Amino acid sequence: MNEQKRPAPAAGEKRDERRPSGGQNGQGRSYAGKSADRRTDRPQGGSFRKDEKRPYDGKTASGPRKFDRDGQHRSQPSGNRSFDKKTDRPSSGRPASGKPSFGKPSYGKSSYGKPSGPRKPAAPAQPGARKLALKVLLDVHENGAYAALSLNKNLPRDLKPEERRLTTQLVYGTLENEVKIDHALNQLTEYPARDAVTRDALRLGVFQILFLERVPDSAAVDESVKLVKQMGAEASAGFVNAVLRNLIRQKDELSWPDAAKDPEEWLHVESSAPLWLVKKLIEAYGFETAKQMLTYREASHPTTVRPNLLKLDDHGFEDLLRKKNLSFRAGVAPHAYLLEGVTEPGFDPDYQAGLYSIQGQSSMLAAEAVQARPGMKILDACAAPGGKSAYLCETMQLTGRVYAWELHEKRALLLDGVRRRLGLDNLRTAVKDACEYRPDMEKTLDAVLLDAPCSGTGVLSQKPDIKLRLKESDLPAIVETQKKLLNTVCRYVRPGGLLVYSTCSVLPEENKAQIEGFLKEHPEYTTEPMPLTFPAELRLQQDGLGLQLLGFRDQVEGFYIVRLRRNY
Question: pTM score > 0.70 for this model?
Fold first, then answer.
């Protein structure tokens, strides 16, 4: 991946050399992922939604020069129209960078070096990485799409690996730093971009100039100008050229919030997280921890995999990885391995044959907390995409039953695919709403795993588009859904059985506060510690209300897990 650079840090702050995230697997369950089709607040035209506060409008006598819509220099700012910040808009995830790729099969040649089969027509020219990245950004901003899904949809299967990596880096890097990028643009232009294409092309250009060392500034400008022309926005070419060249000349003069004078605004811009979320995390964890949570970026983006426990133990899986000549290391979770420098492992024949799965470490830990044993009857109440259900089935060695419910039919199809690929004969999938009580299941199950829909705030570094989509007004409905799910599925656990509740959130109202309320209403349940199969360093982080995992501290996805034993 390209090295990245940042603007000069604020006074008293250390330069943050970490790179934009490029998350790997679809981990955790985001509430927004279940309601994207109900969005009604998408932006209109090319204008911007105003943020909670915007004190930095760039209108200082000594600040950078500004340009009007035609690219002409304005020595004095006029009016109060500016390039608004946008923080309230709309996973496994993005492909990892590097080699080898598990991608496409090679075609054989005869001994004379000529194709052994019929000559194929020449492939059409592939679109460039920047054009593909712009299409994905437009899909995210204008259609409420998820970045990972849009990348999968828009990237051609035969795209060159280096182009795939650059496209992914441009998309996630721009989304991850969007507030910071807009803060810079506010100081460079009097007007918002006249259309969506121009707006996102400018953001791509600013990201390359401010963050990517290996992309020459002049190339970033020239490619951005070409890009708007290719996308039918020729009238904006001069405007884009003027703004980006002005940025190159004066990027060292841009003003940034002062961390000492206004720490909330500084963290808001530095992390590109919405201001309301910044305030919530500071209140819950303190400024220093909130800062680490929101600015944490993985140094690399490995793909997390684990063996199919029906076919391979850890030693056998390590032998398989060595035969593939892959670079790997053991993860924190039991059976987890981190692969460096692979792309599209889903094309690997061994993956397709069901020898291993792609799954986030925190997701594995949530399933491990159940302590499934042969012969048990277990419900995975919100099961898609199926990694935790598979973990339970494999641990039980195809005995007993794992019931996997999913509310949405399309997501339930993912469960059927997992069952077939891994050979999980003890998995029973169904399209069901876990909020609806089923009297026939009262006190019949040995365990229930409820990985509840949530805000997704624990996986922001893997899914930066959550920062643009999630709104504070969403939280009450999320918390209420979690409460209803808990109150329903807890009735299915037999006395002596276990209820495991988890989220991919770091917000207390979804986690420990949720469980405090549950215990008051359900005295038949008590909490108990994580099993000894959990790493000792993680067990040290738990308290009487479960385990809150933090990415920067624990080197896994931000998750909450609690074990609840039913006593009668």
Answer: yes
DSSP 8-state secondary structure symbol assigned to residue 527: E
pLDDT for 206-224, tens place per residue? 999 999 988 999 999 999 9
Could you tell me the pLDDT band of residue 78, with boundaries at 50, 70 and 90? very low
d(CA 188, CA 202): 11
Structure tokens at 48: 């911007």
- The whole-angstrom separation of Cα 24 and Cα 301 is 6
User: Bridge partners of 339?
Assistant: 303, 328
φ/ψ (deg, to 5) at 248? -60, -45
Name the residue type at position 124: P
Site of tokens 């000069």 = 8
Q: Which uninterrupted H or E stretch holds 451?
A: strand 445-451
547 beta partners: 561
Q: What is the distance between the alpha carbons of residues 482 and 86, in angstroms, rounded to a whole number?
A: 29
Going by DSSP bridges, is the β-strand pair 377-380/327-330 parallel, antiparallel, or unpaired? unpaired
Question: What does each C-alpha distance from 221 to 14, 202, 207, 224, 240 come to in angstroms?
Answer: 29, 9, 11, 5, 8
Angle between helices 387-395 and 409-422 in degrees, nearest 10: 40
Give residue 434's identity as a one-letter amino acid code.
Answer: A
Non-local (6+) Cβ contacts of 439 within 8 A are: none
The SS3 assignment for 448 reads strand
CA distances from 375 to 65, 230, 372, 396, 400 (A): 71, 60, 9, 7, 4
Of the listed ranges 191-200, 223-232, 242-251, the one predicted with least confidence: 191-200
The amino acid present at 24, given as its one-letter code, is: Q
C-alpha to C-alpha distance for 556 and 549, rounded to whole angstroms: 7
Q: Which of 376, 560, 28, 482 is nearest to 490 (CA)?
A: 482
Distance CA 335, CA 305 (A): 8
Cβ count near 528 (within 10 Å): 13
Of the candidate ranges 114-123, 253-262, 442-451, the one whose mean pLDDT is the lowest: 114-123
Which 3 state secondary structure label does DSSP give 303? strand
The whole-number pLDDT of residue 189 equals 86
Share above pLDDT 90 across residues of the chain, in percent, rounded to a whole number: 72
Burial zone of 443 (CB within 10 Å; 0-12 exposed, 13-18 middle, 19+ buried): exposed
pLDDT tens profile 136-161? 999 999 999 999 999 999 999 888 88
Residues known to be catalytic: 504
DSSP SS3 for 72: coil
- Please give the structure tokens belonging to residue 437: 């009580």
Q: Decide if 169 contacts 22 (C-beta within 8 A).
A: yes
CA 423 from centroid of its chain's CA atoms: 29
Residue 290, classified by CB atoms within 10 Å of its CB into exposed (0-12), middle (13-18) or buried (19+), is buried
